[in-house]
Design a protein that fits this description.
With 171 residues, the protein is an all-beta fold. The protein contains one helix and eleven strands. It has one helix at 116-120, and strands at 19-28, 34-43, 49-53, 59-61, 70-77, 84-91, 96-104, 109-114, 126-134, 140-144, 148-150. Strands 4, 6, 7, 9, 10 and 11 form a six-stranded mixed β-sheet that branches. A three-stranded antiparallel β-sheet has the order 3-5-8. A two-stranded antiparallel sheet has the order 1-2.
């Protein structure tokens, strides 16, 4: 099949399901000559998806009540291993991104930690996590967690014994 710069072929494939196809391109001239070429394609029109784990509506995150960092995990569908994702912590009241980090897909999931020091610099209010997802075919999606609240109340006070006792042995 001769190549020409001014030849273009377009087709609407949006009604076909995702999968592998063979397209046959045929050309005929006025003399009745015919030529064809088969082109193998993979059709991917499905946007990627991500579901955050352990983030339910109304959850309260209290970084000062534990020494462990806050771990965020999500299941990912439709993104290749190693695909980078920009994960953003968004303050709901003004829709501003207050923390952001890049994570990579590993085994159809992502995971990252936010340490208490980073969270303590924020306001005690409602937040959500968000991510822009783009797969290898250019399909786009937005993933958002349920809203949750950040509680920055520091534990105060000290531990004191409840009572003092002395033991004596009776013989």
């Amino acid at each position: 099949f001769p190549s020409h710069d001014n030849v273009r072929v377009s087709a609407d494939l949006s009604s076909l399901p995702d999968g592998r196809y063979t397209l046959r391109l045929e050309a005929f001239d006025r003399a009745g000559n015919r030529s064809f070429i088969d082109v193998a394609i993979t059709l991917d029109q499905t946007p990627p998806a991500m579901r955050f784990l352990d983030l339910s509506d109304g959850l309260v995150i209290a970084p000062f009540q534990t020494d462990a960092p806050w771990k965020v995990s999500a299941n990912v569908v439709g993104l290749a291993e190693g695909t980078p994702i920009q994960l953003s912590l968004v303050r709901i009241s003004d829709n501003s991104v207050v923390l952001s980090r890049e994570v990579s897909v590993l085994g159809q999931s992502i995971s990252t930690n936010f340490d208490s020091n980073a969270l303590s610099a924020l306001q005690a209010t409602s937040y959500r996590l968000g991510a822009q997802l783009i797969d290898a075919a250019g399909n786009r999606a937005v993933a958002e967690s349920a809203p949750f609240r950040l509680d920055l109340t520091k534990l105060e006070g000290s531990l004191e014994p409840l009572a003092t006792t002395s033991l004596s042995w009776l013989s």
